Task: inverse folding
C-alpha cells in the first residue's frame, strides 16, 4: 500500500515544484537577453546548484564568455559537465568543444568526439556537429602536416624539395580519417 502512494506523491511534488524552477529560469533568461547578467546569475545559480541542467548550461556559457562573471574556462567546464552528464545536448556539444580546443581542460580529442557523439544522439543540429568535427579534423591535419614535414624534412635538403615535402604531407594528412588522426595525435 505504501509503495503505491510513493509514486503519486513524488509526481505531485515534482509538478508543484516545476513552475518555480521554470519562472526563475525564465527570469534569468529574460535578464540575460537584456544584458542584466547579475540578475541572470542570481536566478540561475541556485537552480544550477540544485541540478537544473538548463541553468547549469547557461552558467557554463556565462563563465565561458565572461558575462557578468570573470571569464573562467575551468568553471565553464564544471557547469557544462554537470549538465552534459544529465543528457543536455547543448552542454554536451559545448563540453566537446572545450576538450577539442583545450579550453579549461587538457586538449583531448577522444573525449571531444565522445561528447560530440552524445550530443548528436540527443538531437543537436547535425550540421553543428559536422562543423565542429571538421574544425577538429583540420586542427589535427595541421598538426600532422607539421609533424610530417619535420620527420620528412630531416631526410632531405634544398628549398624546392622542402616544398614537395610540404605538399606531400598535406595530401597525406587530408586523406586520414578523423579516428586515425585522433589515435596518432599525441
Result:
Amino acid at each position: 500500500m505504501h509503495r503505491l502512494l510513493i509514486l503519486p506523491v513524488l509526481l505531485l511534488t515534482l509538478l508543484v515544484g516545476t513552475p518555480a524552477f521554470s519562472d526563475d529560469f525564465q527570469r534569468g533568461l529574460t535578464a540575460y537577453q537584456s544584458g542584466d547578467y547579475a540578475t541572470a546569475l542570481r536566478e540561475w545559480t541556485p537552480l544550477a546548484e540544485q541540478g537544473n541542467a538548463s541553468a547549469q548550461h547557461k552558467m557554463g556559457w556565462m563563465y565561458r564568455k565572461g558575462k557578468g562573471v570573470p571569464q573562467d574556462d575551468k568553471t565553464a567546464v564544471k557547469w557544462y559537465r554537470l549538465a552534459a552528464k544529465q543528457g543536455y545536448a547543448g552542454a554536451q556539444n559545448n563540453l566537446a568543444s572545450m576538450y577539442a580546443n583545450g579550453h579549461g581542460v587538457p586538449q583531448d580529442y577522444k573525449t571531444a568526439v565522445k561528447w560530440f557523439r552524445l550530443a548528436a544522439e540527443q538531437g543537436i543540429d547535425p550540421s553543428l556537429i559536422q562543423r565542429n568535427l571538421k574544425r577538429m579534423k583540420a586542427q589535427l591535419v595541421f598538426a600532422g602536416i607539421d609533424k610530417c614535414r619535420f620527420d620528412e624534412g630531416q631526410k632531405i635538403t634544398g628549398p624546392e624539395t622542402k616544398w614537395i615535402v610540404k605538399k606531400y604531407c598535406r595530401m597525406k594528412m587530408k586523406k586520414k580519417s578523423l579516428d586515425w588522426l585522433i589515435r596518432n595525435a599525441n
User: Anything to note?
Assistant: The longest helix spans residues 2-33. Confidence is low (pLDDT under 50) at residues 1-5, 7-19.
